[in-house]
Amino acid sequence: MRIVFMGTPDFALFSLRALVEEGENVVGVVTQPDKPRGRGYALTPPPVKVYAMERGIPVYQPATLKGEEFAALLRELDPELLVVAAYGKILPKNVLDYPKHGCVNVHGSLLPEYRGAAPMQRAIMDGKKRTGITTMMMDVGLDTGDMLLRGEIDIEENDNFEDVHDKLGALGAEVLLQTVSEIRQGTLVRIPQNGEGATYAAKIEKSDCLIDFHRTAQQVHDQIRGLSPIPLAFTHTPDGKMLKVTASCVLAQSGVLAPAGTVLSTEAGRIEVACGEGSVALLWVLPEGKKRMSAADFINGRKIAKGDILG
């Protein structure tokens, strides 16, 4: 089949690489425009673009999918199947309707749970023990199309966003290849989603990153790991400086008698903080204006003390 791939970040790269290495006929890659990155704001191409160009696959970066310009490109590429993985824009109806075999999306959740922009982060932050990949046939709704195939993974106690992202990226590639194979064979079964069980995984906002130590230790830990290594959960030190937290662990689920946010101990190279229930240890931090460092180095350098209040 003539396949056009649409995707942008590292998550999409897993699926594109699998299609190419499996020998599928990827006739073009559509990705987001280059964006400024880093302190110098240098224009940086998306990972999908870099990979495709290295392999001689034509790359297109339209500013919009609406209008005659992209419609003409679609007719030129003439795909029988569109594969979408974390592209970053809603596909208009004329694009969805073009390919003979439709548009397949590789989505990072077990639909109908966690439709939307941040399914992996939200699953971790909600304390889920399992998540997965669902391939779905796209329609005009937001992740509402018929489900195709799925796979599941465990979310371990200390898995962060990067860990789950990489597990699901690899799993997504496997599930996608099986989906494409079954489309070719004509054996794929479409399963309508049950809207009653649907949940929405909204884009991560700055307000989602502020640590509320009044929550349970487990909830605080889940928030920290769900937002690590990017964009990172944060609190404030007694001098008002922002302190981002890159790694933590639960020390006690209950039984701590101290106001939430109180530093209970700075021993053993970790910062133990009281929560609404239990306590959490901050293991790695990113102080305002500094580089990432261990809690031990932060304790030595800034002399955060037992009894200080964070938040």
Q: Under CATH, the topology of the largest domain is which?
A: Rossmann fold
Total E-strand runs: 17
Return the structural class: alpha/beta
How many separate structural domains? 2
Spatial arrangement of strands, main beta sheet: 5-2-1-6-7-9-10
Give the helices and strands as they follow along the chain. EHEEEHEHEHEEHEEHEHHEEEEEEH
Please name the fourth-level CATH homologous superfamily of the largest domain.
Formyl transferase, N-terminal domain
Can you give the helix content as a percent range? 25-40%
Low-confidence segments, given as residue ranges, are: none
Radius of gyration: 22 Å
Give descriptors for this structure.
single chain; 311 residues; alpha/beta; Methionyl-tRNA Fmet Formyltransferase, Chain A, domain 2; 2 domains; 7-stranded mixed β-sheet; 6-stranded antiparallel β-sheet; 9 helices
